Structures are given as structure tokens and as C-alpha cells.
Amino acid sequence: MRQNLLALLFFTAAAVAQENILPGIEKKLEEAALSSAAFCIAEFEHLGKPYPGAPGESFYSEARIKIIQNIRTGQFETTTCSLSVQAFPPGSSEPSEILPPIGQPFLMIGDVVNGQLRIAKIVEPTSDNVELVKRVLRGRGIDLFEPQADQGAGAQQPPKPMDKTAQTPKTKIGNSRQTAASETKEKLISATPWFAAVVLIVAGLLCFWLKKRG
Q1: Which are the contacts of 42, defined by CB distance < 8 A and separation ≥ 6?
Q2: If residue 6 lies in a helix (H) or strand (E), which one and from where to where?
């Protein structure tokens, strides 16, 4: 009885452990980080239709992911991906992989092939897993993505250039008015001596005419 209970507990624990095995179990996390080029934290939006691969393997080639955080510098190159899920018959000593649930974040590692992320390994995005990957990338000389604080919604926008065309007519009108006023003033000043001379001549002729009549 006791042996049967221990065996039941062992198989139950094994089944629970197998439920959490994600694709890429054959590769260690550090090994995948050393041999891959694409690293991100993302969640699946759509897995698409599976295609049969090797015995017990289901290959998904039309999956879509939503990027939450890029691990290395630059923009993540794609939002489509492919992955394979390996299953084994019940009672096999090999653990079966599970299909990653949609809407749950994962740390995804792989390579971009023909414009698509080919996933090599998927793990939980724990701080230990993410830090291990970053440590490997630093050792490879790869710069890590660091979001800037001024990229938020409250970032200051650059000032708009002044519309010089809207101010040009007003400036021209003001200059033309000032120019016309100056020219009129100069004409009046220059015409004043001649005007005085004409007045004196007319006054002299008028006095001469009145004396002659008297």
C-alpha cells in the first residue's frame, strides 16, 4: 500500500513537471543565448495551424507575437515566428513539451530567418533567466537595449519653426509706409524755400500794382 502511494505521488509529480516544459527543452538557456541572435520578452497573439514534422512534432509556422521588451539594442525585426512542439507517447522517459498559452509573457530566444523569428527556446521571463541571458550577451560584446526616460508620452516636443511667410507681408507694409512718410517729409522740406520765394514775388507785384493805381 505504501509503495503504491509513493508510486502514485511520483507519477503525479512527474506529470505536473511535464506540464510546464516549454519548447526548446533540449537546449540549455545559456547554450541558446550563446548561439542565437534574437532575444525578446513577448506574448503569443496567434499560433496558427500546426503542421506535422518529425514523429510527435507539431510545427507552427504562422504564429504571431506581441513584443513587450527587446533585450538587445535596436528595434525587434519581426512579429511573426515559427516554433515546434515535441510530444512523446505516454509512459516515455522523455518529457513532452507543451504549447505556450496565448497572452502570457515569455522570454523567447532564436534567430530571424527569412524575416521571421525562428524560436529555439522559450522560458519563463524570471529575473534570473533574463539576467543570465543579459550576462551572456555582455560577454559576447552585444549591447543591451535600455529604454530612455524621455520616450514617454510626456516627452517634450521640439518647438515648431516660425512661419516667416506669414510675417513677411506685414513687415513689407510697415516698411513701405515708413518709406512713403519719409519721402513726403523730404519733399515738403525741399519745396519750402521755393514756396517762400514765390509768395514774396507775388506780394511785391501786388504792392506795385496798388501803388500804380493810387
Answers
A1: 65, 66, 67, 68, 105, 106, 108
A2: helix 2-19
CA 83 to chain centre: 26
Q: What does the alpha-carbon distance between residue 162 and residue 29 come to, in Å, rounded to a whole number?
A: 55
Cβ proximity of 60 and 82 under 8 Å: yes
What's the whole-model pTM score? 0.60
pLDDT tens sequence across 134-179: 999 999 999 999 876 554 433 333 333 434 444 444 444 455 555 5
CA 35 to chain centre: 27
Inter-CA distances, 100 with 46, 104, 107, 157, 159, Å: 11, 8, 11, 41, 47
The single residue listed with the C-alpha cell 515566428 is 81
Partner residues linked to 63 by β-bridges: 81
pLDDT tens digit string along 113-127?
Answer: 999 999 999 999 999
